[in-house]
Amino acid sequence: MRRIRYILQKEFLQIFRDKALLPIIIIIPIIQLVVLSYTATYEIKNIRLVVVDQDHTPDSRALTREFTGSPFYKLEGSLPNYAQAFHLMQKGTADQILVIEPHFEKNLETTKKASVQLITNAINGSAAGVMQGYGVSIINGFHNNIQIEQHPGQAKGLPIQTDTSYWYNPELNYFTFMVPGILVLLVSLIGLFLSSMNIVKEKELGTITQLNVTPINKFEFIAGKLIPFWVIAMADLTVGLLVARFWFDIHIAGNPVLLLFVTSVYMVLILSFGLFISTMAQTMQQAMFISWFFLVIFILMSGLFTPIESMPAWAQEFNRINPLAYFIKINRMIMLKGSVFSDIRNEFFILAGYAIAMLGFSTLRYRKTS
Amino acid sequence: MSLAVTINNISKSYPTTEALKNVSLDIKANELFGFIGPDGAGKTTLFRILTSLILPDKGTGSIGNFDIIKNYRDIRKVVGYMPGRFSLYGDLSVEENLQFYARLFKTSIKENYDLIEDVYQQIEPFKKRRAADLSGGMKQKLALSCALIHKPQLIILDEPTTGVDAISRKEFWALLKKMQQKDITILVSTPYMDEAALCDRVALMQEGSVLTIDSPDQIVNNFSGKILGIKTDHMHPLLYDLQQMDHPNQVYRFGAFVHLVTHEDTAAYSKKIKTFLEKKGHDNIVVEEQKASIEDCFLALMNKPETP
User: Fold this and answer.
1) What chain B residue is nearest to A206 in terms of C-alpha separation?
2) For residue A126, is pLDDT > 80?
3) Which residue of B96, B101, B104 is in closest CB contact with A13?
4) What number of CA atoms fall less than 13 Å from residue B233's CA on the CB side?
5) SS3 for A237-268, per residue?
C-alpha cells in the first residue's frame, strides 16, 4: 500500500513539472467557465425588426413604440408593404416583421377584432421560439393597456389574468441556469481526458514496461493513477464554484459540501470511464477520439443545452446510462433548488452504484501483462 | 546469490509471425550469457517471457526455483529488466527516476549504493538533469542503474548497446563484467556480433530458433571452413564478381576485405580466385588466409541450409 504513495508522488511531480499541462487543467477551465457562461445564453438581444404599418394611426404607432422601446428589439426599418419587408428577411437583414393591418385603430375602438401579423425568421429554431415569445408578450401587453384605457372600470376583455413567476430562478437568469451545467461539463472533460490519456501515455512511451516488471500490483497502480486526477477535478470544481459565487454572483441555494460530496463520487465514475478507455486504446490519439466520442454523446444528451423532457423516448432511456445527465440534474437541484440529500437520494445511489461497477469493470479489464 | 535460468521448449506466436519456436536453454548462475541475432530473431520476445510481461503459448521455464508463469510475483522481485527501448520517465530527473524505482522495491538509493556505484557514479554529476536530456550512452547507464537498484539476482538487458557510440559500448560492457563479479546472472542481447566475444557463453538466434549455444572460443574452434580475405582496387564490383564463382552465400564484406569461406585447399583456391578476378579486370589483388572470427562463425551458421 505504501507504494501508492510513491506513485502519487511521481504523478504529482510530473503534473507540476509539465509547463503546458498545469495551465490546461487549472486556468483554462476557469476561462472556459467565464467565457462559455456569457455565450451559452438563450437570451436574444437586438432582434432586427421591420415594421409594415398600414394603418398610420396613433394606436399603430404606439404598438410600434412598444417594440422599439424594448431592449430586445432594434428597428431595422419601416416599409410600406409586406413584400419589401420580406425581401429584407430573405437578404438576412431582418429577424422579425410586424405587419399592422389597415383599420387597426378603428377596429380596436369599435372592439371588433383587430389583427397584426408577426413573421419570424426560423432558421434557428430555438431562437425563433424566443423571438416569437418576446413579440407575443409585447403585443399582449399593449392589448392589456388598450383594454384598461378604453374601459377603465371593467377590464372584462381579458377574463384570465396570467401572472407568471419562475421558481428556483425567478429572473430567468441564464447564468444561474448555465453555470452549474458548464461547471459539470468542465470537470467531466478534465477528469475523462486526463485519466484516459495518462495511462495510454505510459503505454506509448514504453514507460509502462519498466513499471510492469516491478512488484507493484494493479490496484496500487490504478489507485496511484486515478487519485491525482480526482484531486485535480475536485480542486477545479471548488475554484469553479468560487467563480460562480463571486464573479457571476450565483448564490448556491443548497449545501456546497453536499455538492462536493456528490462530485467526489461522480468523479470516481468519470475516472473509471477514463481507465476503461485507456484499456481499449494503444495510443493517445485513439484515447482522445474514444473520449470525445463518449463525451459528445453524453454532453449533448445530458440536458445541459436542451431539456431531456423534449427528447424522444429512446433518448430518455439512454440517459439512464449517461453519467452527465444524473450529475447535471443533481447539480442544478443543489445549486438552484437547494435540495438536500433526501431529495437527490435516488440519483445519488444510481451514480454511486454506477461508479463502483465501472471501477470494478475497468480494473478487471486492465492487465499488467499483455 | 545469483540465479540459474532454465527454459524448456518455449514457443510463442503472434498473429503474423512465429516469434519463438521450441526454444530450450540452460543458463548457469552468475553467467554472463549473450543472445546474438538479427532483428526479429525472437530475443525480445524471450526476454519479455522471462520477465513475466507476456505468457508463452507453450513450454515451461524457471528462474532459480521460481516458475516463470506461476511465481511471476517472486520473479519481479529478484529480476532486473532493462527494455530495449528507453523506458524511464523523461520528465523526471536522473535522481528522481532512480529514487522512484528504488521506492517501488521498498529500498533506497543509499541502501544499494555499493551495487550501482560503478554505473551511477558516471551519471551522478548530472543527477538533477531530466532523463530526456541525457545522451544515449548516459540513458543506458541510468536504465542499468534503475534495473539494479533493487539488488536483483538476475538482470536481463535487451540490446543495451544498440544506438550507443563505440566508446560508450565498451564502457558498458566493462560495467557488465563488474556486475557479474557482484554475483549477478546477466542475460544480454545484442545485434553486434563482436560483442559476443565478451560473453561467457552465447546463444545464436535466428527466426525464433536457437542455432547454437557455446562459449565464444568454442564456437570459433568448431568452425570447419577456412577464411580467405580478398582485397582489390575495385572493391565495389568485387563482391558481385566473387558471388559469380561458386558459393554465393559464403561471400560477404568484412571490414576492408571481402571474406570467402572455403573447405578446399587454401593455396590452390587462392590461385583460382586470383586468375578469376584478373579476368574480371581487377588489379592489385590480395588474397590471404585469415583467422575465423566469431562473426565469420555466426554468418556461416546463419547461412547454413537447414538440416531436416
Assistant:
1) B87
2) no
3) B96
4) 5
5) HHHHHHHHHHCCCCCCCCCHHHHHHHHHHHHH
Indicate the pairing of strand B201-206 with strand B209-214.
Answer: antiparallel
- The number of CA neighbours under 13 Å toward the Cβ of A55 is 24
User: Do the beta carbons of residue B104 and residue A210 sit within 8 Å?
Assistant: no
Average pLDDT over residues B52-61: 92
Determine whether the interchain pair A206/B86 forms a contact, defined as Cβ–Cβ distance below 8 Å: yes
* Torsion A295-A297-A302-A306 (CA) sign: positive
The reply to whether CATH 3.40.50.300 applies to domain A47-150 is no
Yes or no, beta carbons of B91 and A2 under 8 Å apart: no
Cβ distance A13 to B51 less than 8 Å, yes or no, reads: no
Residue B277 burial (10 A CB sphere; 0-12, 13-18, 19+): buried
Domain spans of chain B, in order of start: 5-220, 224-291
* Confidence (pLDDT) at A317: 87
DSSP for B193-242, please give it.
Answer: GGGGGGSSEEEEEETTEEEEEE-HHHHHHT--SEEEEEE-S-HHHHHHHH
pTM for the model stands at 0.77
Q: Which one of A3, A209, A370 makes the best mutation probe of the B interface by having the most chain B beta carbons within 10 Å?
A: A209
What is the DSSP-derived secondary structure letter of residue B130?
Answer: B
A248 neighbors A37 (Cβ within 8 angstroms): yes
Distance from CA of B25 to the nearest CA of A (A): 22
What residues of chain B lie within 8 A of the CB of A10, using their CB?
Answer: 89, 92, 96, 100
**Cα–Cα distance measured from residue A344 to residue A354, given in angstroms and rounded to the nearest whole number:** 15
C-alpha cell at A61: 404607432
Contact between A76 and A88 (Cβ < 8 Å): yes
C-alpha cell at B289: 588466409
Q: For chain A, give every domain's residue range.
A: 2-40+172-365, 47-150
Q: Given CB atoms, is B66 within the 8 Å cutoff of chain A?
A: no
Helices A284-301 and A174-205: angle between axes, nearest 10 degrees: 160
**CATH classification of B5-220 is 3.40.50.300, yes or no?**
yes
Mutation for A interface: B12, B45, B49, B53, most A CBs within 10 A: B53
Is the Cβ pair B81, A369 closer than 8 Å?
no
Tell me the HSE value of B131 on the side-chain side, using a 13 A CA sphere: 23
Region B111-140 average pLDDT: 90
Q: What CATH number labels B224-291?
A: 3.30.70
* Mean pLDDT, rounded, for B261-280: 83
